[in-house]
Amino acid sequence: MRIATWNVNSLKARQDRVLEWLELRQPDVLLLQETKLADDAAPLMAFGMAGYELVHHGEGRWNGVAIASRVGTADVVANFGDGPVRDSGPGSGLSQTAEGDFDPLDEARMVSAVCGGIRVVSLYAPNGRALDTPFYAGKLAWFGRLSRWLEETRDPEEPLVLGGDLNVAPEDLDVYEPADFVGTTHTSAPERAALDRLLDWGLEDVVRRFHPEAGFYTWWDYRGGNFHKNLGMRIDHLYATAPVAARATGAERDRDARKGTLPSDHAPIWVDLAD
DNA sequence: ATGTCCCAGTCTCTGGGA
Known about the structure:
Blueprint: E1 2-7, H1 11-25, E2 29-33, H2 44-49, E3 53-57, E4 65-69, E5 74-78, E6 110-115, E7 118-124, H3 134-153, E8 160-165, H4 189-202, E9 204-205, H5 206-210, E10 219-220, E11 232-233, E12 236-240, H6 242-245, E13 248-253, E14 269-273
Parallel strand pairs: 1-2, 7-8
Antiparallel strand pairs: 1-14, 2-4, 3-4, 5-6, 6-7, 8-12, 9-12, 10-11, 13-14
Helix pairs in contact: 3-4
This protein binds one DNA strand of 18 nucleotides through loops.
């Protein structure tokens, strides 16, 4: 069984590339982030033609998470079970710029389902922008909500894979120039502690086990030719509970998916599991 | 290197986010 994750930076703009990638790499489950679609715009038919069910949790212009699975989609949980995300259209009260209205717990950043006997969780962590902003505090609060959801509703003995764009580089070897990130988001001690809390609950960074090397990045800024200079960060992750981690036979990243015409700024990663 | 790409709305350009 192959479980993958990919922040596609708009599923509308990336649909053809994603469908081609499914055909090429044959994942059984693909966790998607930043679909930037409302639920009624999710391309269920196109994925269905490719053999995948698509579970989508979106709000429109921003965020949006999904699960594409060819091994079933049972027991769906969206937004930690905290209810529907508000429409982010005009007049909705959701604003990306008015800080007083901002709460990432109201945004479409989490969806989960049981696929092929494994509970998978597709996550898109808030960016955080800068350490001295409410957006950073909101990022930490969102990770707190994620940990509480695991601690209160899940069991580390359950087969579970949590993955997505967590917007945190866990170690200095996961960023191209650690000194440049002092005082910025993605590498701060509280963000790394949030990942440690997930791991301490009972998860393993399976991709790290197979790729302990520096420079195994998953995201490169579109600007400045950063991809070709390998100036990136490892901020997309796949974490597994022990019953799943024990089945892992490998993990890979598809750097080729970051190349070519109109790519996402993230590359997909996956883990392979023995039956 | 404020260098690119996405989106919606103000709509063939602009502003905001990453």
